[in-house]
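Retro notes - structure team

What went well: the batch runner handled both jobs without manual restarts.
What didn't: labels got mixed up in the shared folder, which is why I'm recording both outputs here explicitly, each with its sequence directly above its tokens.

Job 1
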Amino acid sequence: MRTHSFKIPRFSARVVTIAIFTFMAFAVTFAHAGPKYAGIVMDAKTGKILYSHKANNTRYPASLTKMMTLYLVFEALDQGTITKKTRIRISKYAASKPPSKLGIKPGRTISAEQAIYSLVTKSANDVATAIAEHMGGSERNFAARMTKRARQLGMHRTTFRNASGLTAKGQVTTAKDMALLGVALREHYPKYYHYFSTRLFKYGKRKYGNHNRLLGNVKGVDGIKTGYTRASGFNLVSSVQRGKRSIVAVVLGGKSGKSRNAQMKKLISTHLKKATRKSKRSLLVARINLPSNQLASSIVLPKLGPMPVFRAQIDDPARLRIEQAHVASIAYAPNEQPLSKNSVSAIRNKLIMLNNSRAPIPQQKQVKKIDAVLTASIKPKVAVGLVPATPRTPNNNTNSKSSENRVFSGGWQVQIAAVPNQTDALLLLSKTRKKMPNLANTSKYGEIHDYLEPIVKNGGTLYRARFAGFYSKKLARSACKAMKKRKISCLALKG
């Protein structure tokens, strides 16, 4: 009887060991993660993706949503539309939100800074909702603004339905989008970012610890936010700065807080060493508005429009000169936005610098008497921005389908005057804002901006001075009612 022998291939012990550990590492990484898991590690200096797993798949954000809520709060603080001492009222709707919450009774208030602390530590849903109502008029309006800002920051797969992160139909995000938001918070608002490293928050007689257990336990972790709902699983965004290296890491859909934290620690230890040690050259996420403290020397003037020249004698306010020269083309270009108040201020400072500080700061002129009858009788045609200087006549084709009317028509406005001088019209808008502290650029009424419209009437030119951008007819009328109490003539109009 013949026997057959088979030769078994011989592998070195080293090869076998490597194979076993590789398989075990793969199994450990994903065995506990579950189908909801998604993750990413981004180099915070270069934007390079150091690790990615289903990073573009949509997931429920849970309380990571509050990162965008806080982004808009920091934006408002930076623009001066609110301060850290601004009181935020808790409505019945806000107080009704389920935990996690502070449990503040309806009608009571909390300062903006206390609200920030409550979001980064306790992740208070009632306070997040109150912020939305204070800044947006309603949570729905505020959520729409959150989504708009997300798109502008490059978060193309994120949609917000509320300010708290409580599960809502259509409210989704991705690991990559949350990484971008984490980077944006660090880049755009470094003077407020320190709030995310808060370990303990005291409100009343109670103390609230931060839900982020990696703070103080993992070297270099300085924030940012945790989140959990049944639909989302356990989420975490972490910012890490160790030595010259810097990353933002995201874990979505963890099975438990413990496994989520373990996965985050693993991502940090494995991928932080891959991040660059070189200096950061530019922002990874473009800012929407220039900060108020931006140095004039770093501003690049828009190329659209003629460059204003130095004149020893001038009657127009500096803002009007600059806006006429630079904003007209921008404000009416599709997909663009008018320059913000801070942008105009920065450009003005740039012009002063270019003229060796010799540019005059014009004095405002006295306001002429306003015809109240004219004010109440004029109807609007367009809704946004500082218009070009060419007046419109009553015989113009009002059905024109120009790009200006297509892009900017509609909305609710409040008209305060119709005067024959453009400078006076701007001054009236400015003085009204001072008398109406609630009429901020971003307020409960809407995203309010100044608007002028010249019109030729009876052989002369009138300038309609209005505030545009009200969210609804009710809010426009409410603002007008408040103005009348301060003896300011006004009329709420549909654009």
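Job 2
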Amino acid sequence: MLVDEGMPRIAIISPNHDAWSETFIAAHIQRLPGVKLVLTDGFLPQRDAQGVSILPSSLGHRVRRRLIGGGLDRHLRTRIRELLIEHRIEVVLAEYGPTGMAMREICHSTGIPLVVHFHGVDAFHQRLLDEHDQYRALFPQAAAIIAVSREMEAQLLALGSSRERTHYNCYGIDVDRFMQARPGKAPPQLLAVGRFADTKAPYLTLLAFHQAWQRFPDLRLTIGGQGPLWETCHQLVRTLGLEGAVSLPGVLTHEAVARAMQGSRAFVQHSLITSQSDREGTPLAILEALSSGLPVIATRHAGIADVVRDGINGLLCDERDISGMAEHMLRVASDPKLAERLGNAGRGDALTYRQEDSLARLHAILAAAALSPRKAASAARA
């Protein structure tokens, strides 16, 4: 089967169906050219893009499955192979390392190249690494491995990914949605957006804010998002007496995030490495803040240090340095000109992280992977 070499037929396998925090995966699904199949719900996917089970639900099929035996995974693998063949897929993009592990044998049996996109937790979390044997079986088979930060790239290489098949491709931003704001004209309002998760440590952002607020009572903070630490943070706000200064509105739409950035003085995030070695990739919300012309107050963590230049487009502190982050909050709160200068530099930097450029690089990696089996076949015939 021959197709336009620049437009391979792509299947995207993503474990989380319509996760609000995974806007980068949504961009892959919606904007990559050539996507013909999307499967989701589990590392070994169980549903299509509409959330419908990929296994037939008729009584006869259920009886046949019981008689044949082999468990659910066996039938899922059979059905996924059928779907890949039925849709004439030429390359599979697996979102997250464990998804790549689950798809490895299926891609091998169908001869379809496998590209695995790592995002953060999958490259570092010790339990995940142990469960998947450090991805030793995956790296030799994958046609390409993608990292979103330089630290992640180094980690994947150290785990055994080959240099020639490992690619750094940072997330991209919709710079037309996240337009340049005027932080120097905004009130002393700080903004954070993301999952209330261990790596983002929102409770440490709150503790730093509390220190700054005690010295600058007009300071305000909004943390948008949801996650396992939301209730902890809610209780911390009450305990510290910050009810009038801190807002925890829950999940915000992309449009609401963009509006909030237009009215903020700075973006804040206190990411850290967890006890299980979990860490971020390059947080998309930080790139969106840079695109919005906001100074970024954050930690020297993972991909943050790739895009935030201390004293140029933001202010960085070490992980767990609560007092250092509080001082940075006070600096931008009390100095609108500093906020404006940092924000202008951030907007200029953000223009080098356009979403369309990141997607073009990803598509080129997928196209090269899809082409490689045909090159191999041509060489064999020669």
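One thing worth noting from job 2: The two ends are 18 Å apart (CA to CA).
We'll revisit the folder naming next retro.
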